[in-house]
Fold this sequence. Notes:
Blueprint lengths: L1 H12 L11 E9 L20 E2 L4 E9 L4 E7 L6 H15 L6 E5 L20 H26 L3 E11 L3 E3 L13 E9 L4 E8 L10 E2 L2 H13 L4 E6 L5 E3 L5 H20 L3 E3 L3 E11 L6 H7 L5 H17 L5 E11 L3 E6 L2 E2 L1 H10 L5 E4 L8 E2 L2 H6 L1 H4 L16 H13 L2
Parallel strand pairs: 2-10, 4-5, 9-11, 16-18, 17-19
Antiparallel strand pairs: 1-3, 1-6, 3-4, 6-8, 6-13, 7-12, 8-9, 14-15, 15-16
Helix pairs in contact: 2-3, 4-5, 6-7
Amino acid sequence: MLRTILICLVGLLFCDQDCLEAGDWKVGMARVDITPVKPVWMAGYASRKKTVEGTTHPLWAKALVFEDKQGKRAAIVTTDLIGLTREISDAVGNRVAEKTGITRAQILLNSSHTHCGPVVRGCAAIAYDLTAAQQKDVDEYAKLLEDNLTRVIIQASESLSEATLAYGEDKATFAINRRGKINPDGPVDHTVPVLRINDAAGKTKAILFGYACHNTTIGLFEYCGDYAGFAQIALEKKYPGSLALFMLGCGGDANPEPRGTLALAEQHGNSLSDAVIRAMDQPLDPIKGPLTVKFQRTDLPFVDPPSKEALIKQQGQGDVYSQRLTKYLLKQLDQQGAIETSYPFSVQVIAFGADLTLVGLGGEAVIDYSIRLHEEFSGRRLWVAGYCNEVFAYVPSERVLKEGGYEGGDAMKYFGFHGPFQPGVEDRIIQLVHTLLKP
Ligand SMILES: [Zn+2]
């Protein structure tokens, strides 16, 4: 008896892995370089007048596949890209399901929203005025991207090995609310959530970390991961042999501050990786299973669309993007007989037992979503990510919708929507999260 107690005490004293037991989890991981081989027009800033001229960072798609004791699986994929589309994510999901049995609903695909990556076909379709040759390059890249994303998840699913999961967090302060350019008094969340994946021997194999801030320190003419790219590189250097994956939060209305140079992107990247390292230096909370994964869509209606007569009258009016939108909507009317009246918004939930719940929202969600969800679910540990599965438009809260401006509705035109959303957008989304988080 005494011997047992002593062994337990020694175990507690020398428990350098936060007292985690191997055997709860198997985790697989993989990475694939998604830097375009052929130069593809750059995404994010519609005003660019020339094409890409080089590569500061290779762009990556990185995948983690988790399997709990019961064999239930979930995949998380991060990408150094402006955003994915529903078409691409669904196509990847269906292909992976066929090969591995991991269903579409079990796969979360997040985008870092770097503005120094290639145009992704269908993401902000109106923003770029591409020639036929440039469009062909974009189409070819999209096909390759679909192949690569499928491949990276399959590879991760084939490399499952025993692992322990642990969670911690810290803060990085370079995000600032950007409503009306710079809004130091506006809401922002500086939390840096960190999920550490160690192998059975206690070595760090992967680090999933997040931050809620536009990944827009710079607008280079080179492929570059921006601050998120620098942070991932710094972490993979600090923990040799590991995979560092950045997951963007609800950063729709936050920018890095200050911004404008590559040196600042590196500085912010280092602030973020330092926060991750600080979190990892503390005792982390063990994360146990079982996994629960849910995925559902809810229609977010737009205000009433313009009539054909109104569109015909509008032709040639407004800025170049408004003119393109009018043309685009007239074509939609011709081809489909109607203008789209809503978007099927996605919410995805990955619960790691009672220890951590990841909520993945589609689109460029603003920080109010994360703040409200943390308040309404204060009894459980939430990690709320935006930019999941598809970047189809900004997702304003009710407050931002009412205030209007870029994220409130003005930016809808770049995405090919007449917009803005009808009132009630925030409650529709929050209600769906509640539905999915019910036991
Ligand atoms: Zn954006």
